[in-house]
Design a protein that fits this description.
Blueprint (H helix, E strand, L loop, with lengths): L4 E3 L9 E6 L3 E6 L46 H10 L4 H4 L2 H37 L5 H9 L2 H30 L8 H18 L1 H30 L24 H7 L1 H8 L4 H5 L6 H9 L2 H19 L20 H8 L3 H35 L17 H11 L5 H4 L1 H36 L16 H22 L41
Antiparallel strand pairs: 1-2, 2-3
Amino acid sequence: MHIHTYISTSLPAHTGHHIYIYGTTELRLLSAATNPPTLNSAQPRLPAMTPTNVYSPVVDVPPVPPKRRKGVQRGLEARHIQMIAIGGTIGTGLFVGSGATIAIAGPVGALVAFLIVGTMVFFTTSSLGEMATLFPVSGSFVTYAGRFVDPAYSFTLGWNYWAQWAVSLPSELSALGIIVSFWTPNVPTWIWSASILTVLVAVNLVSVKSFGEAEYWLAAVKVVAVIAFIFVGVAVDLGWLGSNPAVGLEYWSIPGAPFKNGVLGVFNVFVIAFFSFGGTELIGITAGEAKNPRKNVPKAINQTFWRILIFYILSILTIGLLIRNDDPTLLDSSTPSDISIAPFTRVFQSAGLNSAAHAMNAVIFTAVLSAGNTAIYAASRTLMTMAREGRAPAWLGVVNARGVPVASLAVTTAVGCLCFLGTVFGDGTLFTTLLHLTGLSSILTWLSITLIHLRFRAAWTAQNRSLDDLPYRAPFFPYGQYLSLALGAAVIVGMGWAALDEGGSRTPALHPPLPRAQVPQQHEPDPAARMRSRHESVAPV
């Protein structure tokens, strides 16, 4: 069979040359004055040809489509995006690590630290939302960095962000051992870590929809728990629950309150605050696999302010009202012999709801599942994006038929196995070290998002594009972005100052060793026995 096709080339007009492809192998370069080759009667004739047209062959042979790479699937529905934005990032940083902020900075100092970080998070999330709504891709700000700043910047940011989540996974799994030891102090923690890691990998291997569905219900449990915690805490503080009279602001006037260790105490807890807020930028990653992202992403971004206010600020306020800053059971204990009990659980115990304390510990267990689920998802998608953009080995970009980046998922899981080192070095030490590593990485990530947004707006203006063409616009631009950059820089400087001052007597060490979690004997069989006096050296629990 012969296929006759005429191709018009880009040769200069004065040459008067055109290219004819006649048959399957014959190629001739003819002048404009030369007629096309004569066709015999057995060959189909072509219609008249001109140099400006391309004619299909008379014999219709369907073209072979190019082989396309498999990509991620848009399987996240509106309810998934909404719940991920509301409670998906609530994890051990708030449920477990929040007690350390009270012990180091005092009740008001911790509140100030969370307010500062929360302000930065609000403007950073708004910046990311503007870009993610216009360009909903899985690479999110890693891709934007290469497009609006520099490919080298994207390379550095991408690996930093992947490491942030990859390290966050074992930190969540290490915290799991601390939490579950509330019930099973004699069971090795590596058993729980291995079990939960297996479940998380299985969920993420199925599809992005299974990730979204799991995150929806896990986040819903956390949201309900935090709201219940705030209501119970207010009732305890007013004397409506528990066997003690109203506490009010009494713990804000004891030694170490309201500001413990002064300004350095506030700077010392910034890392924990950043760790608690870590993951708020996940909405940009999910936009690449969300259905109708231009409608669903702005709705999720608009809830950021209320999420920060209700779930973080009010929670820290409640803990500061009900637990003394010198309580030895806070996470950041003063001596290695002190135990570690989550402050959320302690508040329920102070209300006399002993069964609710166990339920709250179960909620914290759920939070670990959710945070670990998010860590695997974000790390695997980031690594896949870098591979597909040429910033990581190409084999890491392999995606299966269900849209799951299996190679990136495997590498991330391997890093998650670091949690087993906790059996060697102690769960508390590993958790604290990983917590501070991921907290610092969050600062760099959020500063980068703000910088990328400023560059994006500059490019948008340079092309004379109207702001009305943006599906979502970040509020208070550019003042909010400049404030976010200033706060981030101040936090980094302050943290360095606090770290240099660790050797002094005014500020406790930023990285104190945590004890191995265990259930103290005094909690059995009568936890309410410790609630009889508000004037002891520890909070009434």
